[in-house]
Design brief:
The chain has two domains: 110 residues; 77 residues, 2-Layer Sandwich (Histidine-containing Protein, Chain: A). The protein has 198 residues and is mostly helical. A hairpin with a 2-residue loop joins β1 and β2. The chain starts with a helix and ends with a strand. About 11% of the residues have low confidence. 64% of the residues lie in helices and 10% in strands.
Amino acid sequence: MKARRLSTFSLLAAAVAFSAVSVFAANTSTSVKNRIDSAEQSGKVSREAIVQFRADQQVIDKKEADIRAKHDGLLPAKHGVKLTKQRDRLIEKIDKIAGKPADNTAQNYGDARKESPTPQVQSSKKEDLDLLQSIRKEIVANNSLSISAKNVKVVVINGTVTLRGVVDSESERAIVASAAKKFADDSKVLNKLEVKTR
């Protein structure tokens, strides 16, 4: 009789542990999503970084779904703790970038994505390199631009120019874009420059 009570108690305790972690993890997943949405609405985080945050969240959510599939929809406590730690680290990254004024931190976080054009994937075609050189010379020669504006990333792939980085003002953003449009069609210039907030 005593053994049966202990066995029943153990089962109840395990069920409570499973369900408690289950609810906690679901709330954490929702809070990550809300944090990303909030960072996106603030306008302080680049689109590339937001996309990367969402991809990171999906990886964690998929891990949880796979674990639940193996345990009849339940989430064992040890797995719940690991997932919560991963989500906490992701929230810390989001808060770190969203809490800062616009700078290259957010841009560089987004650069980790393969589809983000970066100087490392610059085309080696002669036409693209010539175009890049002309635009870069035009930007550097403009003495009205700040050091930040002169150091923006310019990537040319198959004639498409991508401008990324942080400039001091809307005026600088327009000047840098106009330097690119002097050598490339308007439709082929992707202006992803951000204005530094003070």
